[in-house]
Amino acid sequence: MKLVFMGTPDFAAECLRSLIENKMDVAAVFTKEDRPVGRGHRMAASPVKELAQANAIPLYQPHRVKDDEPYRILSEIRPDLIIVAAYGQIIPQRILDLPKYGCINVHASLLPAYRGAAPIQWAVINGEEESGVTIMQMGAGLDTGDMIAKRAVKLTSDETGGSLFDRLSREGAELLVETIPRIARGEIAPEKQPEESTTMYARMIKKSDGAIDWRRDAASIERLVRGLNPWPSAYSFLGGKQVKFWSVSVSDKESGKEPGSVFDVGKKGFSVQTGNGSLRILELQMTGKKRMTSDAFLRGHALSGTERFLTEP
Q1: Could you write out the three-class secondary structure of the chain?
Q2: Quick one: 141 exposed, middle or buried, by C-beta within 10 A (0-12, 13-18, 19+)?
Q3: Which is higher by pLDDT, 37 or 303?
Q4: 63, 42 Cβ separation under 8 angstroms
Q5: Residue 88: closest CA among 63, 113, 68, 69
Q6: Which residues contact 186 (CB under 8 A, 6 or more apart)?
Q7: CA 251 to chain CA centroid, nearest Å
Q8: How far apart, in Å, are the Cα atoms of 260 and each of 24, 198, 274?
């Protein structure tokens, strides 16, 4: 079966790597254009581009996949199946209609739950006990196509956005290479999705989502810290300086102080009051400094217990 792969970030690269390792016929790869990164705005290739180039697979980076040129290229390739995984562009209907077996998408949730761009982070933030991957037939809607295959995973109590990303990347890649031969053999019985999602729409995460509102309960803030680890991270401000929180634990201790107030300061750590319960701070990071445990932080930043973390500087 002749395949075309469309994807951009690490999640997609894991799927492409699995196709290559299983010696599937990847005739071409489409990925987004290189983009500037870092303070120097150096142009950086996507993980999918790097993998395609390392394996000498014909590579295309159209500015807009809905333009005529990508359609012309795909018409000449005549793929049997197009695979899409976190490509970052909407695929037009005329391309969806090109391949013999259509286009399939690898989505990092158990559809119809968490349609959208950031299902992994929101699953952790919202305290889901289960997530997974779904391979679906692509249609005109956003993550609304018929479901072809699913694989579920249980979230651990210390699951982070990063750890779930890694797990679902592997699961999605494995499920993909198992599903393609079944598509070729006509063994697939697609399952229609309901019109309405069973959860909130998993919109794209913004840096501002990491701003901690200390009026919320301790458990929801702890999930926010885990869900936004490693990017963009949960943060607050102390003395006008940003502090990122990488690891915290929930406590039912109450200080009687305003949310965000520091209390219970000792040699090994400190706690912060929330709207309900408190958080014991385990690992954090000041702007321009390395990540450190709370006891290491206290050796360089003496806290008296009168301080208060704020949502804004």
Answers
A1: CEEEEEECCHHHHHHHHHHHHCCCEEEEEECCCCEEECCCCEEECCHHHHHHHHCCCCEECCCCCCCHHHHHHHHHHCCCEEEEECCCCCCCHHHHCCCCCCEEEEECCCCCCCCECCHHHHHHHCCCCEEEEEEEECCCCCCCCCEEEEEEEECCCCCCHHHHHHHHHHHHHHHHHHHHHHHHCCCCCCECCCCCCCCCCECCCCHHHHECCCCCEHHHHHHHHHHCCCCCCEEEEECCEEEEEEEEEEECCCCCCCCCEEEEEECCEEEEECCECEEEEEEEEECCCCCEEHHHHHHHCCCCCCCECECCC
A2: exposed
A3: 303
A4: no
A5: 63
A6: none
A7: 28
A8: 54, 33, 6
Q: What is the pLDDT of residues 1-48, one digit of tens each?
A: 999 999 999 999 999 999 999 999 999 999 999 988 777 778 889 999
Instruction: Find residue 137's DSSP bridge partners.
Output: 104
Residue 140 pLDDT greater than 80, yes or no: no
According to the model, what pLDDT value does residue 100 have?
96
| Mean pLDDT computed over 194-215 | 96
203-208 long-range contacts, CB within 8 A, separation 24+: 203/116, 203/117, 203/118, 204/116, 204/117, 204/118, 205/118, 205/121, 205/231, 205/232, 206/232, 207/232
pTM: 0.94
Split at pLDDT 50, 70, 90, the class of 247 is very high
CB 232 within 8 A of CB 223: no
- Please write the tens of the pLDDT for every residue from 269-300: 999 999 999 999 999 999 999 999 999 999 98
List the Cα angle 64/67/71 in 5-degree steps.
110
Longest Cα–Cα distance of the chain, Å, equals 70
